[in-house]
Input
Amino acid sequence: MSRNTQRPTRRPLVVVHRPLGTPLTPVQQRVVHRCRALSQVTDPLDAELTVSTAVADARPDEEFWAGLIEHAVSHPSRRNHALLRVLAAALTGRPREWAAGAVLPASPPLTAGGAWICDRSLDAGYLALVCAYAFAEDEHAMVFLIDELSGGVVRKAFVTRDHLAARTDLAARGELTAIGTEAAHWLLARSYHRLDRDTRMAVDVDVQRTRLLVDRRIALAFR
Output
């Protein structure tokens, strides 16, 4: 039996206030259902997007992830194995450790590339940011629109597999300047933190759908 198909031999850690065997909540059940086709997804970016979209309306915390991981470990299947692999690769902090303790992360690993900013805060009131990433040689980028008139809150976010086209489009709107990877992701972390402080703020639906991807990439930039 290969390492990629071997069932986990130990249970992941869980938060203290969540007893083992606690049933899934309706929200967790909905997320599991939304990820039912994950075992058929071979592209790592598509797999990440599948899980990120599945939890877009869940606002998951550590207890949420602990329950999902425990369920996946306790009910071995191709679907749950695929879910654990994505969680082991995409989550951050303790939840990532719990998932990684149950299964090997999906490969290839994610790497961060360059970042560019288009500052139109004076005339249009926003910053546009492009951050490039890659799974091995398979490149993609995330594009963010940060509303400076509302205190630097991220308003729009989306993923593209053609970061050169995204940069060209932004360059047509204003001067595009390279920015350091850490500086770019510090800006993102600040923008999302401000969004979290005011959950009533209206943002594009893709901001929530891609949130899991963003959290992973912010953590990657400061590793």
About this structure: The longest helix spans residues 181-197. The chain has nine helices and five strands. The first strand starts at residue 110 and ends at 120. The CA atoms of residues 118 and 170 lie 7 Å apart.
